[in-house]
Amino acid sequence: MSFDWKNKNVLVTGAGGFIGSHLVEALLSRGARVRAFVRYNSRNDTGLLSLLDPALLSTLEIFPGDLRDLTTVRTVAQGCDTIFHLGALIAIPYSYDHPAEVVETNVMGTLNVLQAARDAQVRRLVHTSSSEVYGTARRVPIDEDHPLQGQSPYSASKIGADKLVESFYCTYQLPAVTLRPFNTYGPRQSSRAVIPTIMVQALTRDDLRLGNLDASRDFTFVTDTVAGFLKIAETPGLEGQTINLGTGQAITIGDLAHKVIAMVGRPVRIVQDEVRLRPEKSEVQRLLSDNHKALERMGWSPLVSLDDGLSQTLKWMKSHLALYSSNRYIK
Ligand SMILES: NC(=O)c1ccc[n+]([C@@H]2O[C@H](COP(=O)([O-])OP(=O)(O)OC[C@H]3O[C@@H](n4cnc5c(N)ncnc54)[C@H](O)[C@@H]3O)[C@@H](O)[C@H]2O)c1
Predict the structure, then answer these.
(1) pTM of the shown model
(2) In this predicted structure, what is the pLDDT of residue 1?
(3) φ and ψ at residue 277, rounded to 5 degrees
(4) Does residue 141 have a cis peptide bond before it, meaning omega lies within 30 degrees of 0?
(5) How far, rounded to the nearest angstrom, does the alpha carbon of residue 310 sit from its chain's CA centroid?
(6) Which residues of the chain have pLDDT under 50?
(7) 226 touches ligand 1 (CB under 6 Å)
(8) Ligand 1 pocket, 68 CB below 6 A?
(9) Domains (ranges, CATH) in the chain?
(10) Of 66, 72, 83, 281, which is least packed with CB atoms within 10 Å of its CB?
(11) How much is the pLDDT for 276?
């Protein structure tokens, strides 16, 4: 029998972000009572949640705060059956300039979520890791036993957070699971990520400025990623596990840019921009997932092909271009 989300109390951290907003939408449409933890600001700005259908939004409980504040995180977690922890500072170039803030948010913030989840005696905590923790592939495809390499402060912070989750499972039997998505893309993603960066420039400029064109990535469409979040929360017996979420197919950034340019149908020149290059040893050259565990342990496999996902994303970007700036490099 499929899991019933109806009237389940669910907390989503990072709810105003790209993946979080899609996850909130999926949970609300399944009848869950969702509490959205968003980073506080004085503009009452709930991030990408403002793009959700107002009827759906009206059923959402919005809770502003900061992951670094344990008291707040404890309060928001009270009474929750499931916690999806997605809140994080995720931009790698930002982590080069602000390593302490990234560690405070991603490591201490996760520790706060773990303590709060333990106090609240949740049924399940889903922690979000990242394929960046593997660093440049030493072997492909990358399974969950691949060595972890902290090639950036962001990656190191995620490794630290993942290890804290492991420790809370081992020490306190906290029913926590770790989902490790490879690159996710789709509508609403900001242009700090490579696919929106390519699309917005290809739609509006004659030259497309990118960093390393030879790096390759395994891209999952956001609806598939959200399906993975739901499966890892629903499937019994996964406590203490870490599970990759990826398609098992990779493409270089250069080939991806050519693909998008062909879809856009304008003559656009690709230019390698020094400012966007990562320090040599920090560059993750290749990521390609082994996704067998996701299939075997929770029945997940990707449904959306790269061509289909890119065309859905491009359609959305064309109708929301005003949200994007094509001239500024966003870290
Ligand atoms: N997008 C990807 O390709 C990808 C791949 C692998 C893993 N992930 C992970 O998935 C999660 C979501 O990523 P995303 O792409 O939606 O990122 P995002 O930046 O769109 O969302 C992250 C959210 O966390 C919030 N946040 C940051 N600091 C906070 C703080 N101190 N207190 C409260 N909230 C705070 C931000 O405001 C933002 O809304 C992250 O944990 C990320 O590491 C993303």
Answers:
(1) 0.97
(2) 67
(3) -75, 140
(4) yes
(5) 17
(6) none
(7) no
(8) yes
(9) 9-184+222-248+288-303 (3.40.50.720)
(10) 281
(11) 86
